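Pipeline run #58 for the internal structure catalog. This entry was flagged by the ingest filter as a single-chain record with no existing model, so it goes straight to prediction. Upstream metadata was stripped on purpose; only the residue string is passed forward. Reviewer on rotation: M.T. Logging verbosity set to normal.
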Amino acid sequence: MPPTPSHRASFSIGSEIAAKRVVDVLSEVFFEGDAAVAAFERPDGQWSVALHFADAPDQAWLRELVATSAGNEFADTLAFDTVEAQDWVKASLEDLVPVPAGRFVVHGSHDRDRIAPNKLAIEIEAALAFGTGHHGTTRGCLLLLDHVLKSSRPRNLLDLGTGTGVLGIAAAKALHRAVLASDIDPASVRVAAENAALNEVGNQVRVIRATGFAAPDFGRCGPFDLVLANILANPLRQLAGQMARHLALDGRVILSGLLTHQAPAVIAAYRARGLVPLKHLRIEGWSSLLLRKIW
């Protein structure tokens, strides 16, 4: 059976910096896997930004979104077409290079044989699930995880809002311990479980579908010594109280998915629940936070 075509919206923009900024904004809007967003350099030096959808998008709404994130002149050039799913995924993978983050390297299958043996390789394919490792938030979380593991070996681990499973897989590979991973999106749950198996930690990373902490598994597996949560600023603020209750005393939490200007409000919400900031990374306009529970 031939693959189902995907719906594509694309436009060109002048520089790599502008393209990355627009991709970050659009990725935040479609964070639950409603679209795949990517940018690629063209031979003429321009950058192409493309969004791929399983179903036809609302064109007027999408033009408004591009106008807000990139400007009216780019929204006016937005073009819509369809493309075979296998073609754009293949093209995306060919342009994705390995991403180093401390001891970790996130890569696609096409770079499997190019990763240094002294690195912890995490193979993640491009898909309609958030987190190939190329986003600043994922890299920030991996760098903070590497930092934590230099001085401690947490036993109870949670990857909340796992997406593709990259953070849970990284923790399992580094510590050789069980990791509970959760996501609200059924597609992400499936993709994360498949990626865990692909990375030979399928017996260590258990993926469940859950909204926030609303599942009995959290109570049974906690309190957690380390929680990884790469979500968004508003959900992170709303989860501060529950996060504190499920975190062990002196436990650490790594938070990301927030723009740099959103970090102070998130820090304040967690400080009020007994968590103090230890480290703050800023990558490509995004913040990643490491906090410790002191009471």
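catalog note: The longest strand covers residues 247-259.
catalog note: The chain has a mean pLDDT of 86.
status: ready for reviewer M.T.
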